[in-house]
Hints:
Chain A has 10 helices and no strands.
Amino acid sequence: MSxxxxxxxxxxxxxxxxxxxxxxxxxxxxxxxxxxxARAANCSKESLYKWFGDRDGLLAAMIxxxxxxxxxxxxxxxxxxxxxxxxxxxxxxRDLVDVLSGEVSLALNRLSIGQAGAGGGKLGRLMxxxxxxxxxKRAMTLLDAGRRSGLLDFSDGGEAYQTxxxxxxxxxxxxxxxxxxxxxxxxxxxxxxxxxxxxFLRLYGAANKWEEPRIRHA
Amino acid sequence: MSxxxxxxxxxxxxxxxxxxxxxxxxxxxxxxxxxxxARAANCSKESLYKWFGDRDGLLAAMIxxxxxxxxxxxxxxxxxxxxxxxxxxxxxxRDLVDVLSGEVSLALNRLSIGQAGAGGGKLGRLMxxxxxxxxxKRAMTLLDAGRRSGLLDFSDGGEAYQTxxxxxxxxxxxxxxxxxxxxxxxxxxxxxxxxxxxxFLRLYGAANKWEEPRIRHA
DNA sequence: CACGAACCGTACCGTACGGTACCGAATGAG
DNA sequence: CTCATTCGGTACCGTACGGTACGGTTCGTG
Lengths: 218, 218
């Protein structure tokens, strides 16, 4: 392989990264000092620098490590019934919400966003391709399956996905990033998952499959 | 007044805050040092501490100052026609997008989010109530006007607003915060404003006013 | 047992930043 | 003219953190 560098982290390194993540979750970026990580993980700073190069390398490794944990999980490839599609959409939305409201995800996003303004932006790009990529891909395959089954009607899959995402998440992600308590947010989310799927199907459901035909006004 | 503290900043202080903002926009939080602000604004650090207390006070003042610039702009209170409502919704969405994609807004959100993880979270709360509050209020009055005019049908205004927001913004705000180039984002936004308003009216337009009745499925 | 590699713990260094103190210049009042 | 207040410029201090070097220990290998 041309890039075997991050195929996997050694068990020891994974443990260190895990400790670094939990340190980041409680205390934010300012609490994530190299000395603190070394102390919490019972390793030496020298090893940290040997393994990850420098502090930014450690941060990048944390993101890569966390991203490596997401299960990509391909939904069945066959035809879907209406109820199956609806159920799959609902679980997708719920999973999405669970991920976004997770403490580790929030902390990592805060970290990447916090230093995105500077010249770097390296972490932000990592976050975008490693984090958003897979989950978006999973949604796209689901939407495609719905279309192939004649249940959904859209021309641009990305557009449909964006709509679903917006309906499901709205501004809650940013609000959580700004500090809204996760319980408040999660409660708000819970009541919205059903409405989001419902609205999405009203917007993109194939005619005569979900309701009477809709007329696109000029 | 019980809180005349931030009724206004003196012209000198406003100039300093302006300079601090532009310093934050280029270079991120790490570039926003007290010495840097003092140098850029041709004032002394001592004056900074006299006016704003400490560094956090300066950051909070920057947010308050920027928030004080938003025009709240009340839309007419009379009956609305369909076209007027549609136009108002469209301009609202466009304004919202302009605000969110503005460099200053992005930098300030990055700043607040970046230090939201730590114990503080003070800036995040400030951002939420000073930034999101007014714009949401404006949308709510517009939606209420639409309902009073018999053009919109919803029971929970907040829910409707969240839907509109999600349709308009989706995940683009977070992606911009993570570093997606503003031009890319703005282009994506432009094509979505119309679709968002369209979809919103399909979802919340009063029956027989925009299209044939919709059936809410179980 | 002997040797070497990996690694932990710690001590150390340079720097950069938040915050404070001091001094001189300008401005306005009497 | 003189005094007082305000503010800019600079020098200074303490601290905290990133990064490096070194001694001691464990563990695997021949």
